[in-house]
TrEMBL record:
Gene3D superfamilies on file: NADH Oxidase
Natural source organism: Actinokineospora cianjurensis
Full protein name: SagB-type dehydrogenase family enzyme
A GO molecular-function annotation: oxidoreductase activity
Domain Nitroreductase residue range list: 157-341
Family matches, as InterPro entries: Bacteriocin_Proc_Enz (IPR052544), Nitroreductase (IPR029479), Nitroreductase-like (IPR000415), SagB-type_dehydrogenase (IPR020051)
Domain of life, source organism: Bacteria
Xref: PANTHER family: NITROREDUCTASE MJ1384-RELATED
Amino acid sequence: MKVRRLEGLVCRWQPEGLQVGLPDRHQWVRVPPALFGLLDRAGEWTDLDALTDGLGPDTAAQADAALRKMVDLGILVTEEIETPVLWRYWGAVARRFHTDARDANYLVDSPERDAEASAIAADGAPPPVFKDYPGARVVMLPRAPLPLREPVESVLTSRRTHRRFSADPVSLDQLGTVLFYAFAPQRFLDGGVFGPQQARVSASAGGRHEVEAYLAVYAVEGVAPGLYHYSPRLHALELLRTDATRERVAELSYHQEASYQGAFTVFTTAVAGRLAWKYRHPRAYRLWMYDAGHYGQTFALVCTALGLGPFQTVAFPDTEVERYLGVDGEQEFAVYLLGAGVPERADLALPVDFAFPGPAAV
């Protein structure tokens, strides 16, 4: 029988030894060092018996039994197994994460829920829910947001991703309104053992609201150009650096013009500890992705209601953006780039440079 090691096995070292993740199963098995050597020899199609050549009779018998068990587990394969297209493109690590992040037990309506919550709360205080930069120069934003009087159906059907902007500046009231609805708490709720929780327009896993916003301002009335952190606690901009030029942001966004040709750019990050403190399983890694998307859509809808054109992208070099923002990339990392400005043509049903397809294309 010819066998081959399954392509893309993921291994990990645990205190009890080396473990291999079973393909598409939320399970790991320990592989002793001797068997790991046999697996190493099975990178190409090989007769199963040949893998035990050179071993003593007793050892060979044990190794043969173990190898056949690995065939049963899918670690060794006996015929060519075609890797699904997505995992060919995304790789073995993504496949392993997808498997390990499935079917987490959230203990909903379970008698264990209260005990689990109490254990988390007893494990130490949660990370701060707000991030501030003490000593930074502050630009206070208007406390009263602009009224959003566009009918909701008009806002929903008008929301488009814009890529061409006029040179007109955005007003301070417009910027303050966007940030208020997209990133500020609207009220606070009693989270029980988890402490006070924020209620924002955007949904957030467990009310943790791990998303932070950093603004590169180019053309906002009453705000000097620069890189700012938005403080939802103060509803204010905290100045971090003055070199927030369009040219610099172009370098951080692969020169996607819409990333830096509006009136301002928002880099959002995730403060991972806010989530990890409450959600302690691999599936929670998905949650900041959902939350970043919720924030991005709220941002786009508020911009649309104000007559601004929103833009969003995830195409940026993470490490360079994080270095520019002054975050470590581990505890806090870049997740989404948002931008907005006055559209070049606000009276069109489509953004500039787009057209409706003809009937044949549809």
